[in-house]
Amino acid sequence: MPINHRAEDLRTNVATVLRAAGSSQEEATTVAENLVEANLRGHDSHGVGMLPRYVEAVLEGGLKPNSNVNIRLDTGTLLNLDGQRGYGQVIGEQAMRLGIERAQQHGSCIMTLGNSHHLGRIGHFAEMAVAKGLVSLHFVNVLSRPVVAPFGGADGRYGTNPCCIGIPLVGRPPFLLDFATSRVAQGKMRVAYNEGRQISPGTLIDELGRPTTDPAVVVVPQSNGLFGALMAFGEHKGYGLAVACELLGGALTGGGTWHKPTDPSVRTVLNGMLTILIDPTKLGTEVAFEQEALAFIDWLRAGPPRAGFEAVQIAGDPERSTRAQRVIEGIHIDEQTWREIVAAGHKVNVEMTNE
């Protein structure tokens, strides 16, 4: 049975473990708040269940606590940044603050970020931008065990490579599109595996390239030591977008692309991210943008809902609804995931209960 945890308790527990693993109090708090916020918004794949992997990455040396973003190039409208293998939740916020400042000054900013440890929920960075009235586009690659098969391929060749677009809507909650280019996020497979659930058909192939509904094929090595793979969403279209994320988030940023055999024992997850920020007020289309954006969203929402749906929604609505519910009811964490979190604490001499 899943266990309900209060958000504030999770923040405290996670921050305590991160502090024991070497992070400053400020860094530990930032990372803990980010992970719990992902859970609150329904993205358990990017929530506190990542803590065990982070602790292992620190102990291996692939994740460097208390690192800061390094500016390699700053021309005002162009930023080239290096994350120095620091916590992505911290590095990402530092990078976004720089990019937002440049976009507000110049009207736009193109920012590349490489060599950051796992950035977590990319939507958080888009939220930072839209809160300042900026349009925000993000293309991200993943340097870790490749878990997604190319369209027409039978094994994993790249990561879940997320894409995110944030668009402010004056007087309304923003449009916030944040998705993996695989049919589901890899972290959702970890959650399903821990909960003992099967996955919808058409999501996975096993280590021999055959369709399967067992999430274990991408979580633990199979009998031949190999892994299965996730499928791209949208067939060749999602695959094409994933390749674009690899080329833009990996090659263009200088952070690198994936093209080598995998080592399942390595727990480090590195991300590269291309971010494009636009200030509508300096583009000269601010009034039309505000009016036309709201008119279109209203047009969408005015349509009749299909059977099985309560209303027409836009990207960001489900996360906002889930957050409101989980703030009241708490965050569900399955027993196996909680045991893994407790075990991660033990590795850095932090005692937590299994309740």
Folded structure, characterized:
- The protein has helices spanning 7-20, 25-40, 51-60, 88-106, 123-130, 186-195, 236-252, 280-283, 286-301, 317-329, 335-347, and strands at 3-5, 70-74, 78-82, 108-117, 135-143, 163-169, 172-179, 204-205, 211-212, 229-230, 270-278, 331-333.
- Strands 2-3-4-11-5-6-7 form a 7-stranded mixed beta sheet, with helices on both faces. Strands 9-8-10 form a 3-stranded antiparallel beta sheet, with no helix packed on it. A two-stranded antiparallel sheet has the order 1-12.
- A hairpin with a 3-residue loop joins strand 2 and strand 3 (78-82).
- Helix 1 (7-20) runs antiparallel to helix 2 and helix 3 (51-60) runs parallel beside helix 11.
- It is an alpha+beta fold and 355 residues long.
Write a brief caption for the model.
The protein is α+β, with helices and mostly antiparallel strands and 355 residues long.
Radius of gyration: 20 Å
| Low-confidence sequence ranges | none
Q: Give the CATH level 1 class of the largest domain.
A: Alpha Beta
Number of strand segments: 12
Number of helices: 11
CATH superfamily of the largest domain: Malate/L-lactate/L-sulpholactate dehydrogenase, NADPH binding domain
CATH topological fold name of the largest domain:
Ribosomal Protein S8, Chain: A, domain 1
Q: Roughly how much helix do the residues carry, as a percent range?
A: 25-40%
The biggest sheet, with number of strands, parallel, antiparallel or mixed sense and barrel status, is: 7 strands, mixed
What is the number of domains?
3
Strand order of the largest sheet: 2-3-4-11-5-6-7
Q: Please, what is the average pLDDT?
A: 95
